[in-house]
Write a structure and sequence with these properties.
The chain is of the alpha+beta class. Helix content is 17%, strand content 15%. The protein contains two helices and two strands, in the order ααββ. The protein has a two-stranded antiparallel sheet. β1 and β2 form a beta hairpin.
């Protein structure tokens, strides 16, 4: 698909509050994060709202999941996450991590904060 239009850029952050981003949308954000008012976050944001988008360097900010929210847990106690991989030229280049709030009404169907 081609480049995103100006209108798509404006609404992408609103869309992230109600659904998970598609691969092409993630790539657009990563190619031009300043256009979305984003930069790599050096520290954790406390209790970000649903749909918030953050860029973390996992080697520099290893505790990004400790943001004050109670995330849905797996049986072993770890955070339940869904991973999406973006392949470029046949290689995994980007990993997106989606999490959901635990115990909140409607938490099962809406995207939570991501890393």
């Amino acid at each position: 698909r081609g480049a995103m239009s100006q209108g798509q850029y404006r609404t992408l952050r609103q869309e992230a509050a109600r659904r998970w981003l598609e691969t092409r949308e993630v790539l657009a954000v990563l190619r031009d994060p300043e256009r979305y008012g984003l930069r790599t976050s050096p520290e954790i944001v406390h209790r970000p709202p649903s749909g918030a988008i953050f860029l973390y360097n996992r080697s520099e900010c290893k505790t990004f999941r400790r943001d004050g929210h109670s995330w849905r847990r797996k049986a072993n106690g770890g955070v339940a996450e869904t991973y999406e991989r973006l392949r470029v030229d046949g290689e995994d280049r980007i990993m997106c991590s989606y999490t959901r709030l635990g115990g909140a009404p409607g938490a099962g169907g809406t995207p939570g904060g991501g890393g």
